[in-house]
Structures are given as structure tokens and as C-alpha cells.
């Protein structure tokens, strides 16, 4: 079912030279059947980064969608993540093998520690386990998710630097503290829930005004806000039109004033998940 995609997201180069698409498809909370359908469709449109996790319970569907698409494996950047029960050097080997089996793949492009779970305090060992996987060629890049500066610092102190840290980030959650650390260390910032779950954010006057000026949708403006700063957003959509719209969010430039007005939406969100407390 492969057709010629109208657009492919450009790439960013990770610290180890691996190219990562600058926008991808989030798959939470799709089930296997939906993931298989949507992943195949998204790849057909030109998506080349697919984000899943053990915890989403849809890796089988993601693998199925990949095979159904007909896009060659090496052209797709597949990310998955593992849960806290695997936080040990040996555990991570098992977690990776189990993910590969569910996905039907022999390597993943990016493997992430899903949550630091500092109460368990084994995320450093988990990271060391991923270094071994990198050496074995089972993963092409390794990173973290939901790590704060203090969690990253524990890795830095041992000379370890993730290629990517995937965090909850949108204009309401600017996360400037951790993003600054990423910049200093050459870590790529990946944004989960980049659209603020399509809630009040997409009605913000600063975003609607920019959308009007550029003849774009609010979602496209928000995604451009991410990519213009070098962030890699992974919006989830199961809707064909919104999938296409999200992918086609590169061909315009927000002015410095527009970027600043959108960044000014940053606020304290007491409901935001705290990775010192929440994790799985
Ligand atoms: P749907 O799957 O029906 O398109 P986030 O990635 O920030 O968590 O947001 C995901 C939510 O945003 C989903 O509910 C998704 O719904 C919706 N969504 C995705 N893309 C768009 C878009 N371009 N415009 C409006 N809503 C969108």
C-alpha cells in the first residue's frame, strides 16, 4: 500500500551520529489493532518515527503496522521504553529482547528508561544495561524519559549521557530548567503530549493569532513551536486528516515575537506528573 509520501520530516543528528526524524507518531493509548492500522497509514503518509512502550501494550500492533506499510525497516526510526521491573543490567537485556519479540524486529532505533522511579533507585543500572545493548547492536541509540536534572546528573557523574530525554513538554509546560541541561550536554529533547492533549492550549489567543497569520491550524503552530527550538514532538493522532496536518507542520517559520508569545504561556501546573513520585 506504499505510495509516495508528500513530505518526510527532516532529521536531527544524535550525539552518536544516528539520524532521528524531527517529528514522530505517538501511539499511547492505542491498542494493538488501532496501532497496526494507524502506524501503517502514518508510514504511508511519510512518518518515519514511531514511538511505543512496553507499558502501552501495543508493540505487537506497531510491528504489524510497520510490516503492513511496506516501508523498508531501515527507513523507520522505532522507539520503545521499558518499565521499572527491568531496572538492572540483566533485566534490561530481557526487557529489550521481549520488546523486540513483540515488535517482530531485531533492533530498535531508540530505547528509553520510561520513568526514573528514584524510590527504587536503579535507573543508573538500567542505563548501564542499555550501554551494553548499544554495544551489542540491539539498539542504535539510548535515552531516558521523564528524567529531571537531578536524575540526569547521576548519569553525568559517571560519564554517561543519554542521546535523548523524552519529557512532557508543550507551551504550558516549557520545562526550561531541564531543556537547558539538554542543550549543555547535547541531548535531544523529545516532547510527549506536545499538543497539550488538544485541550485549552489549542484555543489560546497567541496560538490562534499565529495560526491565522500563517494560514495554518493551531496544532501546526504548536508543533512548529517545538521543531523551531529543536525539540522532537511526537503527537498522537488516530485521525487521517490530523495525522497529515501534524506531519505537514514544517513549511513555515514563526517569528521571534510569535515564538515569545507562545512561550509566555508557560505556567505552573500542579496536576503535572512528578517523576520523583510517579512511575511504572
Ligand atoms: P485524535 O487521535 O482524535 O486526533 P498529545 O499528543 O498532545 O497527547 O495530543 C493527543 C490528542 O490530540 C489526541 O486526543 C488527538 O486526538 C488530538 N490531536 C492530535 N492531532 C491533532 C490536531 N492536529 N488537531 C486537534 N487535535 C489533535
Helix content: 25-40%
Query: Strand content of the residues, in percent?
Result: 5-15%
Number of helices in the DSSP assignment: 10
* Count of DSSP strands: 10
Main beta sheet, described? Answer: 8 strands, parallel
**Cα end-to-end separation:** 37 Å
Shape: globular
Q: Which hetero ligands occur in this complex?
A: adenosine-2'-5'-diphosphate
Cα-atom Rg, whole angstroms? Answer: 18 Å
Quick check: average pLDDT? 96
How would you describe the oligomerization state of the chains in this entry? single chain
Low-confidence stretches: none
- Placed side by side, the strands forming the largest sheet appear as 3-4-5-6-7-8-9-10
The secondary-structure element order is EEEHEHEHEHEHEHEHHEHH
Helix/sheet category: alpha/beta
Keywords:
two-stranded antiparallel sheet, eight-stranded parallel β-sheet, globular, binds adenosine-2'-5'-diphosphate, 10 helices, 280 residues, alpha/beta
Write the layout of secondary structure elements.
Layout: E1 11-13, E2 19-21, E3 25-26, H1 32-45, E4 49-51, H2 59-69, E5 77-82, H3 89-103, E6 110-113, H4 123-136, E7 142-145, H5 149-156, E8 164-168, H6 176-185, E9 188-192, H7 205-214, H8 218-228, E10 232-233, H9 240-247, H10 256-263
Parallel strand pairs: 3-4, 4-5, 5-6, 6-7, 7-8, 8-9, 9-10
Antiparallel strand pairs: 1-2
Helix pairs in contact: 1-2, 1-9, 2-3, 3-4, 7-8
The structure holds adenosine-2'-5'-diphosphate.
Amino acid at each position: 500500500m506504499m505510495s509516495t509520501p508528500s513530505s518526510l520530516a527532516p532529521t536531527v543528528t544524535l550525539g552518536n551520529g544516528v539520524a532521528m526524524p524531527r517529528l514522530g507518531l505517538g501511539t499511547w493509548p492505542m491498542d494493538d489493532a488501532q496501532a497496526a492500522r494507524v502506524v501503517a497509514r502514518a508510514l504511508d503518509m511519510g512518518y518515519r518515527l514511531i514511538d511505543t512502550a512496553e507499558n502501552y501494550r501495543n508493540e505487537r500492533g506497531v510491528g504489524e503496522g510497520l510490516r503492513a506499510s511496506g516501508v523498508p525497516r531501515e527507513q523507520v526510526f522505532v522507539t520503545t521504553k521499558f518499565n521499572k521491573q527491568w531496572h538492572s543490567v540483566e533485566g534490561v537485556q530481557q526487557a529489550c529482547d521481549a520488546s523486540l519479540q513483540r515488535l517482530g524486529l531485531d533492533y530498535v532505533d531508540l530505547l528509553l528508561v520510561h520513568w526514573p522511579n528514584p524510590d527504587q533507585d536503579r535507573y543508573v543500572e538500567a542505563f548501564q544495561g542499555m550501554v551494553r545493548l548499544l554495544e551489542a547492536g540491539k539498539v542504535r541509540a539510548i535515552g531516558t524519559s521523564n528524567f529531571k536534572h537531578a536524575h540526569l546528573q547521576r548519569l553525568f557523574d559517571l560519564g554517561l549521557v543519554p542521546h535523548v530525554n523524552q519529557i512532557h513538554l508543550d507551551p504550558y509546560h516549557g520545562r526550561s530548567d531541564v531543556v537547558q541541561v539538554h542543550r549543555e550536554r547535547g541531548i535531544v529533547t523529545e516532547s510527549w503530549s506536545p499538543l497539550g492533549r488538544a485541550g485549552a492550549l489549542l484555543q489560546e489567543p497567541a496560538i490562534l493569532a499565529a495560526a491565522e497569520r500563517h494560514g495554518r491550524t493551531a496544532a501546526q503552530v504548536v508543533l512548529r513551536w517545538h521543531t523551531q527550538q529543536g525539540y522532537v514532538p511526537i503527537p498522537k493522532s488516530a485521525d487521517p486528516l490530523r495525522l497529515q496536518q501534524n506531519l505537514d507542520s514544517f513549511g513555515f517559520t514563526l517569528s521571534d515575537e510569535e515564538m515569545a508569545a507562545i512561550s509566555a504561556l508557560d505556567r505552573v501546573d500542579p496536576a503535572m506528573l512528578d517523576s520523583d513520585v510517579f512511575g511504572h
